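Session log. Operator J.P. requested a structure for one protein chain; no other inputs attached. Running the standard single-chain path with token output.
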Amino acid sequence: MSRVRRLLPLLGCVLLGCVLLTLYAPGGPLRRDEPPPAPAGWSPYDLAGSIEAAQTRLRRHPDDAAVWAALGTMYLEQARRTADTAYYGKAQGAFERSMRRPTGDGEPYIDAVIGMGELANARHDFAGAVRWAERARKEAPFRWPLYGVLTDAHLELGQYEQAETALRRMLGGRPDLASFTRAARLEQLHGRPGPARDLLNRACAIPGDPSEYAFCQWQLGELSWSNGDPRSALTAYTQALAADPGHVPSQAGKARAEATLGHTGQALRDYSAAVARSPSFVVEYGELLEHLGDMDGARRQYAVFTAQHKLLAANGTTDNLATGMFEADHGDAGTAVRHLRAEWTRRQSVEVADALGWALHRAGHHAEAATYAARADALGGRNALFAYHRGKIEHALGHTAAARAHLTRALSINPHFSPAGEKRARALLAETS
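Structure written below.
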């Protein structure tokens, strides 16, 4: 980890200095009034129409590998916009069909291989994503999107040095929206919201289509939210939805910010609209309802989550991180620990470390929990929920001074990290004063 800390200031210099000057210089690859070239074969301005056009083309030319690869990419984009995992199976089918290539038809094949890596990341099969990306790199090392797959996968696996190496390669070959947004995430993980915001603002100036602009604005909203600025977050989420009204993560983010700012009625309407499109945000919605005293409404949302994950498990897919986090807060702590220990064997990211530490604490294993809570802080990031969890664990161990320090840090970062979080943290600080 020390090596990552030494190298990342240099990364920030590269990103905000040489790379950006090259990118926007006269005659450079991207001037501010020139978006990067769109992927061949589809228009993100009308994703549904592009999907239909690709399907029509394939009915006439069923062996067109390039269109199959493009269709898979479109399905993944639709999944990202709508948070609807049903598109994953469609994307897989399209990519697999594309890989049935005629001899010598290499470019669509590599597109499909990279697409399979993106799909593996979306399904949380991060080790599988690395394998797909390495397969693409072996055949086409200068296809820059494969390094995005590697960056994402290594980040989720907790392999931060490898993630940085892949990102540097990506930035060197294609400094664009995809590489800038990933660099911003790495900066945020290391507790540097200023550089992260600068990178995202640069990224938002590049894209020429609404879906990419919405994605950038959503990330800016998430950054503002996580750093305790719900007003700026609301502005960013609203701008994202103005560009792409179907962007479900921004709808849920907007609801979260509205609830914090006291716009409860609008927050409930926006959460209802978000979960009607995707069940990904039912736990968030349920926690707000519970905070507002609507226990029946909260239980209905939690029941949707449980049913959804039972269905996924029946189909051979288990999201141990999401299930473990839910069980730790709303179910059985022992079940949470089992799920999260299983996830820790697969990947050792800061998110999994925090979740496992919290589950162990809820199950009464405070000393072991403290080791994972410390791991979650290892990169030096600014995460209010992590700090709150660590404060609660230290309090359970009788370490009053450490507990107060972490709880105070949580409130200073973002007092709105959960509907009831600020109240609980302040109560515990009052108790230990």
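Operator note: The radius of gyration is 22 Å.
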